[in-house]
Amino acid sequence: MRNTLTAPIINRFIRRASVCAEAFNPDEDDEDKEPLVTRPKTDEQRQRLQEACRDILLFKNLEPVSEEMSQVLDAMFEKSCTIGEHIIDQDDDGDNFYVIERGTFDIFMRVDGTEKMVGCYDNKGSFGELALMYNTPRAATITATSPGALWCLDRLTFRRIIVKNNAKKRRLYEAFIETLPLLTSLELSERMKVVDVLSSKAYSDGQQIIAQGDLADCFYIVESGQVRITMKRSRTKKDPEEEEVDIATCSRGQHFGELALVTNKSRAASAYAVGSVKCLVMDVQAFERLLGPCMDIMKRNIANYEEQLVALFGSGTDIEEQNA
């Protein structure tokens, strides 16, 4: 007598057993054959979702207004959680990527049979990406310690859009930074670390990118467009009113903003977008950690800036001592 097999009912909140651990290849297009997932949302839900996703690092390489970002937002669904609820469990297979809208969560890892708390989230952040990116079991358990709300992105959409887009951007950045004279002194492995910490920012015509006198927090490489560099000076000795004078223009592949980071001073000049501009941006912590081998080149550039000032202003202002 033949047995009748009944297809199981699939619940997206039920964890699947881990069945494989091969790395996901973002260049393979098999998953693109599946239809895109769209989950309807009210205007109020979508606004809350956009706010929750605004500072999520994995979304930084997606243009804020783009087809890919819209597809991500369309596919995400809301999940409420209660105190003590396990959101993910160590060793389970990855099913969703999670963005925290509100709530507190503890992170536990089981080491030698003992579960230890290793961190927490407090009303912001995201988790769950590693199991989806590398097709490995969950590395930790995360439990809710307060009522909260999460936005979830399913495995298929995450890999199709986020992983593939990040891989595409990485290849573009790798090819781009190989052409930069500033980074020629870096080993290949060092350049790859630079690629990992770069983010892209867009600026509209006339928008100020950095302001003279501000504290330095980032280093910039022009990805596309042109950037106008200006410096304030007094109109005359008798007229203390200041005017901004153009001192340089940076185009694709050129960099700016390193001067204040090298000298540990405030910004010595301002920078403005000329037309639409995109810049690759590295924060000060990554700059100091990764670009040490390039420091001699950047210090030589300080002398070049000083020569420009002599030509423009007729005086040998020492940029290294300037604290404008």
Strand and helix map with partners:
Layout: H1 43-53, H2 67-75, E1 77-81, E2 86-88, E3 96-102, E4 104-111, E5 114-122, E6 126-127, H3 129-134, E7 141-144, E8 148-154, H4 155-177, H5 188-197, E9 199-203, E10 208-210, E11 218-234, E12 242-250, E13 255-256, H6 258-263, E14 270-283, H7 284-290, H8 295-313
Antiparallel strand pairs: 1-8, 2-7, 3-6, 3-8, 4-5, 4-7, 9-14, 10-14, 11-12, 11-13, 11-14
The residue fraction in helices comes out at 25-40%
What coarse outline follows from CA principal-axis ratios?
elongated
- Average pLDDT number: 79
| Number of contiguous helices | 8
Strand content: 25-35%
Rg from alpha-carbon coordinates: 25 Å
Which structural category do the helix and sheet elements fall into? alpha+beta
Give the low-pLDDT segments: 1-22, 316-324
Number of strands: 14
Termini gap:
90 Å
Summarize the structure.
The protein has 8 helices and 14 strands. It has helices at residues 43-53, 67-75, 129-134, 155-177, 188-197, 258-263, 284-290, 295-313; strands at 77-81, 86-88, 96-102, 104-111, 114-122, 126-127, 141-144, 148-154, 199-203, 208-210, 218-234, 242-250, 255-256, 270-283.
